[in-house]
Amino acid sequence: MTSLAPPVPAHLPTDLAALRASGYVPRTVKAEIRDNLVARLAAGEPTFPGIVGFEDTVGPQLERALLAGHDVVLLGERGQGKTRLIRTLTTLLDEWTPVVAGCEINDDPTAPICARCRRLAGELGDLLPVTWRHRSERFGEKLATPDTSVGDLVGDVDPVKVAEGRSLGDAETIHYGLVPRTHRGIFAMNELPDLAERIQVALLNVLEERDIQVRGYQLRLPLDLLVVASANPEDYTNRGRIITPLKDRFGAEVRTHYPVRLEDEVDLIRQEANIEAVVPAHLLDVVGRFTRDVRQSSAVDQRSGVSARFAIACVEELSGAAVRRAAISGEAEAVARIGDLAGVVPSLRGKVEFDVSAEGSEDATLELLARRATADAWRAHLGGNDVRPALSALVSWFDDGNSLVAGDAVPAATVLAELGPVDGLGRLVAALEPDLEPTPGVVAACLEFAVEGLWLTRRIDKGAVGHVHRYGASGLRE
Question: Taking each helix axis from N to C terminus, what angle separates 308-329 and 281-296, rounded to the nearest 10 degrees?
């Protein structure tokens, strides 16, 4: 497999003598993280790049834990960014770290701990070969599963090495597990409560005494690690639990959360969603509000939470709907519209755990919440006096007996041709999408959003035949 790490710079030392001459001073992983974190804080740089919404809450708590040299448990519902946050910790490591060439556990050339490297150091002295590991390679991660074994985490006897003629008592016959292979790095255990309790016991020495035990070997490896774990609150009582001695050995427990502010929710969607079409800002706002309304709904099981992946999938589906419409109608530009949301909502059902009392009404609940979010976004964006003349002109146009067709396959040109010129339409588009060029697709998206809001606020009616909607004056029948 090709390494994702960049090539090792040619100027770095390649043997122990050159390493010592370079002025290299070994540090523990936690000291390394502490020094780099202090430097980042002093420079005013983002501590955890790519993490949205934790700047004033989770971030400071985690910073304090790292500066204290503590191992950490991140506790929070699904989809709160725990794994993403853990993976950003590698940016606090030095970019390059020297290791003994060929060592399975990344030994420090100045103080090797495994039997092989101690033997080589004794034989070669200052000629001990040195290679360098990038910080991206100093991270080990394991998803806790019921079939995880002690051998997976700590190690076991390697029958191949025994077959080569070495005795069972030889420490070099050990095949090291994930934990020792992350020596001088960061080891992450995701969903820790799912790890069988008897396997959790194997981590006790790692967290406290900083060593490992492999079967009956008289072996002590003083490992240098930062251990970080993630867990869901429900796991403490439902699927499993973190045994008390292990939980006590973690220095800090940091509680994560979903984005507190709507702006953070939208920023997260922008950062994470794979968007292939134009998704206007007002639609992102609707999806952000929709996600928050689902999280707060009494029909949803609040213990399981509503992942950020709910909002991300929603926006990606809206993008897909726009691409589909452009392909069917031959439009040059694919732009998502509010009418696409109705077709997307049913596909999100699998991302929400509903309360037993809501059984049988899941789709209706999501549709109602989507409409509520749309109305709230409409009031936030088009509730001011600046666009009131344009909205009044639209209502008057419908009152004159006109109607407007929309739907997931209706092209923007059809929407605009049916409506014709409207007083104040440019101001309405500017109020909704000041950062987008007013192309036909964008104008149609803004117009449809305005008309949908008029229907939701009961100033006009809407009829539907399949996936085609027709807006008209009050009294329009389906």
Answer: 140
